[in-house]
TrEMBL record:
This is Non-homologous end joining protein Ku. Homodimer. Interacts with LigD. With LigD forms a non-homologous end joining (NHEJ) DNA repair enzyme, which repairs dsDNA breaks with reduced fidelity. Binds linear dsDNA with 5'- and 3'- overhangs but not closed circular dsDNA nor ssDNA. Recruits and stimulates the ligase activity of LigD. Residues 52-181 form the Ku domain. Coiled coil: none annotated. Belongs to the prokaryotic Ku family. PANTHER family: NON-HOMOLOGOUS END JOINING PROTEIN KU (PTHR41251:SF1). Residues 250-274 are annotated as: Disordered. The keyword RNA-binding does not apply. CDD domains: KU_like. InterPro entries: DNA_bd_Ku70/Ku80, Prok_Ku, SPOC-like_C_dom_sf. Keywords: DNA damage, DNA recombination, DNA repair, DNA-binding. Residues 259-274 have a biased composition (Basic residues). The gene is ku.
Length: 274
């Protein structure tokens, strides 16, 4: 499993060297955008709309829009200095709480944690302590250039870290429009709804749920591929034509270079005989 980064977990005076691994992956099927006329993949270029020129990496700087059309420029050196003020490869547990205290809306991404060299004993100690106390750790960590709030908990038999949103990143429910403020259902309607929920209540078995759209799309792609319903971009077709032309030219060259068969002049033979 690919290691995202190596660092350490600290709580109190205990320090655990660890490795971070992505616990989930995006299962979406990536479709490319093609030019309808020639089937060439579309390129997305960075262009300045004012100068009407294509930009290279060194032409681009970062900025924050403080007002409409007004920006504060932030240099890469300034950003790097802020990063260096924090330990980028450390996970500091600041509190321990019960997992049920965290609403699922706060959860973002999940990562597996594995012990690095010399960290197996301390790793096992933290894991067992979390199991015995039925607690999770609230920690701060730097990942992908952002200070993340995270939860460290036990998943099956390993430690898992889940990044969670800060409170100001979760939008207020008051901002959601058209929410009824008063109950407008009858008792009979409510009882019927509860009965339906009871009938559909079961144990959670994640393996029984499937992305049906993705499966159908995979089937469509496989079917089209088997039936050779594929297209080539213009450049690839040109390359294929060039290869064909080259092979033809080579064959013609070979044919021309073959030694010609000697023909016997019947008249000269007859002359010699006479």
């Amino acid at each position: 499993m690919h290691t995202i980064w190596k660092g350490s977990i600290s709580f109190g005076l205990v320090n655990i060297p660890i490795k971070l691994h992505a616990a989930t992956e995006d299962g979406d099927i990536k479709l490319r955008s093609l030019h309808k006329a020639c089937h060439t993949p579309i390129k997305y270029e960075k262009v300045c709309p004012a100068c009407e020129v294509e930009l290279n990496k060194e032409d681009i700087i970062k900025g924050f829009e403080v007002a409409k059309g007004k920006f504060v420029e932030i240099s890469d050196d300034e950003i790097q200095a802020l990063k260096e003020s924090k330990e980028e490869k450390s996970v500091e547990i600041v509190d321990f709480i019960e997992l049920k205290e965290i609403d699922p809306i706060y959860f973002d991404r999940s990562y597996f944690l594995s012990p690095s060299e010399g960290g197996k004993k301390a790793y096992g100690l933290l894991k067992e302590a979390l199991v015995k106390t039925k607690k999770v750790g609230i920690a701060k960590m730097m990942i992908r250039s952002k200070e993340q709030l995270s939860v460290i908990r036990v998943y099956e038999n390993i430690l898992l870290v889940e990044t969670i949103h800060y409170p100001d990143e979760v939008r207020k429910v008051e901002e959601v429009p058209n929410i009824p403020s008063e109950k407008n259902v009858t008792k009979k309607e409510l009882d019927t709804a509860i009965l339906l929920i009871d009938q559909l209540t079961t144990d959670f078995s994640p393996e029984k749920y499937h992305d049906e759209y993705r499966q159908k799309l995979e089937g469509l792609i496989e079917e089209k591929s088997k039936e050779k319903q594929t297209v080539l971009p213009a450049e690839s077709r040109a390359n294929a034509d060039n290869v064909t032309d080259l092979m033809a030219a080579l064959q013609a060259s070979i044919d021309q270079s073959k030694p010609k068969k000697k023909t016997t002049n019947k008249r000269s033979k007859k002359a010699k005989a006479l």
